[in-house]
Amino acid sequence: MAEPLTIYGDPGSGNCLKVKWVAEHLGIPATWRDVDVPGGGTRRPDFLALNPAGRVPLVVFADGAVLSESNAIIICLAEGSALIPRAPFDRARMLQWMFWEQYSHEPYIAVRRYQLHYLKRSPDDLDPKLAERGGDALRLMERTLGPSAFLVGDALTLADVALVAYTRMAHEGGFDLADYPAIRAWIERVEIGLGIGPYATPA
Fold this sequence. Notes:
By secondary structure, this protein is an alpha+beta fold. Helix content is 49%, strand content 8%. It folds into 2 domains: 5-78, Glutaredoxin (3-Layer(aba) Sandwich); 88-194, Glutathione S-transferase Yfyf (Class Pi), Chain A, domain 2. Strands 2-1-3-4 form a 4-stranded mixed β-sheet, with helices on one face. Strand 3 and strand 4 form a beta hairpin. The longest helix has 31 residues, at 88-118. The radius of gyration is 17 Å and the shape is globular. Residues 3-85 form the GST N-terminal domain. One of its GO terms (molecular function) is transferase activity. Pfam families: GST_C, GST_N_2. Residues 87-203 form the GST C-terminal domain.
């Protein structure tokens, strides 16, 4: 019998959790393999043999095919499901948000979180652009979600999965979500929709 989907990831990484959530939401059998990124797990020869880029998440399919990059993986897993809109324009809007997440959201909110929460650096030692551009990203989301239940209309899509991962952790990067009521309500809707429960800061 072929092995199920294997997900290599760090449980503290929003990018890795996206993949886990989508697999669970869609009922895709999967085995999770912890990779200790801060401890050098992605630089081990056995991991680099799977992904020479040395990054998680990484999935190995039952037939041995390997795929990396979180948003590429979740698109592959969700193809044909309700998480991807059927209408071409709505699908393009979903992809627009997913590209934006990796270019204009994750590099600021997730990076600032990593610096403060994991490396325990002082906010005064960080590049101020991380806070400025992270705030810009949250304000854009707040304006979008004021009149809309989800990022692409009234249904949960991969755009919401991609963006909720680090947005619900944003306080660990020094971003106060009390200032963003529409985002807070959206986070709750996405958590309920995915069945993942509210975020709890790891011990």
